[in-house]
């Protein structure tokens, strides 16, 4: 899917842990989910030189959040359709399976974190994508 996607993520019960990620496509949003998990692994074990994990590990990571929602833009209705963690997990599996079949590695992501207020509408305030608090 090539639809603009916003990930709403709340790792803990603390409302201050809420963050959103602005992604140009569903595929990039799924890459962002994997990057979030990889970042967590690196934080927990900074001495790691190579990351290895199973799909089940990634799905458990999504389940471990208080909130994990994808808002996907629907061109037919001109609105964002909300999708829950189950939908995200289904798309993750499909996305990663397709990448594996195509022999494509996941793109590496810069680890820039933006803690600015969210912009209104679809504007991204100069960011091509990134993390923002909501």
UniProtKB/TrEMBL annotation:
Task: Name the residue ranges with Gly residues bias.
Answer: 124-134
Q: Where is the composition biased (Basic residues)?
A: 108-123
Secretion signal span: none
Tell me the superkingdom of the source.
Answer: Eukaryota
| Region of interest called Disordered, as start-end residue ranges on this chain | 94-134
Q: Which Pfam families match?
A: ER
The entry assigns this protein to a family as follows:
Belongs to the E(R) family.
Q: Which protein are we looking at?
A: Enhancer of rudimentary-domain-containing protein
Q: Which organism is it from?
A: Absidia repens
